[in-house]
């Protein structure tokens, strides 16, 4: 059976502490109790897509340790197919160290661990096994770039499309950007790519127009201002609802997962962005990168 959505990305164990404010360099602060949860941009987006009605196949790697087993259990129970996830013996499961301030802003440091062992050749084989015409590949950049690039090239060859969340921000080849449909970036990532200011909706529209020359379509997320999108024939802005912000950690991943699920369901880019904005607004209302279990 051909998968409608494949998520290629990272899987981490998140260690989160809520603090009154973020520490200054060299400063030690006392925080609230430690919260341990499953995370990683790939795993977060896969679960967000599943919550949005998709049945995603997850491609990634975890260590042969307790954290890895817990991650696979969490993904599987959340509606994600983990049968193709690699379990490696030479690296631990990835870890993210997160501090969240009272106003919802976060800082994150990631130790990649097994995520750095995602193998490009295995990714290609896995995609050929489950992908096909119409398959959406959703990827991020917490795994080796070679794996993301070969994944995008393979899904294009099979007649599918790539949604690339260019996060964390890094240089990527023009050949990969050209396959993105859409490229999903936030304000800072859009600025890194274009050199243009992206501090308002109008500035984001200009940046999206510039990026449209380098990829098939683009979405720029704007936090509380929603998102701007552009493809080769149209462009628009989707406003976000006003909500109480608890933690912004999972907002971008919730957006990307819901957007990819909508595209896999055959919806237009504008409709997919609308679903993504709604998911992102919901995500900031809980602590942690993934939604609480119902």
Q: Helix count? A: 9
* Coarse structural class: alpha/beta
Order of helices and strands: EEEHEEHEEEHEHEHEHHEEEHH
Order of strands across the biggest sheet? 4-1-9-10-11-12-13-14
**How does CATH name the architecture?**
3-Layer(aba) Sandwich
Overall number of structural domains: 1
User: Could you state the CATH homologous superfamily?
Assistant: Ribokinase
CATH topology: UDP-N-acetylmuramoyl-L-alanine:D-glutamate ligase
Measured distance between first and last alpha carbons: 29 Å
Query: What is the name of the CATH class?
Result: Alpha Beta
Strand content: 15-25%
> What form results from the Cα inertia axes?
globular
**Whole-number mean pLDDT:** 92
Secondary structure: helix percent: 25-40%
Radius of gyration: 18 Å
Low-pLDDT parts are none
Can you walk me through this structure?
- Helix content is 34%, strand content 23%.
- The protein is an alpha/beta fold and 294 residues long.
- The chain has one domain: Ribokinase (UDP-N-acetylmuramoyl-L-alanine:D-glutamate ligase, 3-Layer(aba) Sandwich), CATH 3.40.1190.20.
- The strands form 3 sheets. It has an 8-stranded mixed beta sheet, with helices on both faces.
- α1 crosses α8 (251-264), α3 (120-130) runs parallel beside α4 (145-157) and α6 (187-194) packs across α7.
- The two termini are 29 Å apart.
- The model has no long low-confidence stretch (mean pLDDT 92).
- It is an enzyme of class 2 (transferase).
């Amino acid at each position: 059976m051909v998968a409608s959505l494949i998520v290629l990305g990272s899987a981490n164990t998140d260690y989160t502490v809520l603090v009154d404010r973020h520490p200054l360099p060299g400063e030690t602060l006392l925080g609230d109790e430690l919260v341990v949860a499953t995370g990683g941009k790939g795993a977060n987006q896969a679960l967000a897509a599943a919550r949005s009605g998709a049945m995603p196949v997850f491609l990634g790697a975890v260590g042969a340790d307790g954290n890895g087993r817990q991650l696979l259990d969490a993904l599987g129970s959340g509606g994600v197919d983990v049968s193709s996830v690699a379990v490696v013996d030479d690296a631990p499961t990835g870890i993210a160290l997160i501090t969240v301030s009272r106003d919802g802003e976060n800082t994150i440091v990631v130790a990649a661990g097994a995520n750095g062992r995602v193998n490009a050749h295995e990714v290609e084989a896995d995609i050929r096994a489950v992908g096909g015409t119409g398959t959406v590949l959703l990827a991020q950049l917490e795994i080796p770039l070679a794996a993301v690039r070969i994944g995008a090239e393979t899904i294009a060859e099979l007649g599918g499309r790539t949604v690339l969340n260019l996060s964390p921000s890094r240089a990527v080849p023009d050949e990969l950007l050209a396959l993105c449909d859409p490229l999903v970036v936030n304000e800072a990532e859009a600025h890194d790519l274009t050199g243009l200011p992206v501090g308002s909706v109008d500035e984001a529209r200009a940046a999206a127009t510039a990026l449209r020359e380098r990829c098939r379509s683009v979405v720029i997320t704007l936090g509380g201002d929603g998102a701007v999108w552009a493809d080769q024939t149209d462009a628009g802005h989707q406003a976000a609802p006003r909500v109480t912000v608890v933690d912004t950690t999972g907002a971008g991943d919730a957006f990307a997962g819901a957007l990819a699920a909508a595209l896999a369901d055959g919806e237009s880019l504008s409709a997919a962005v609308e679903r993504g904005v709604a998911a992102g607004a919901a995500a900031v209302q809980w602590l942690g990168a993934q939604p609480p279990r119902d």
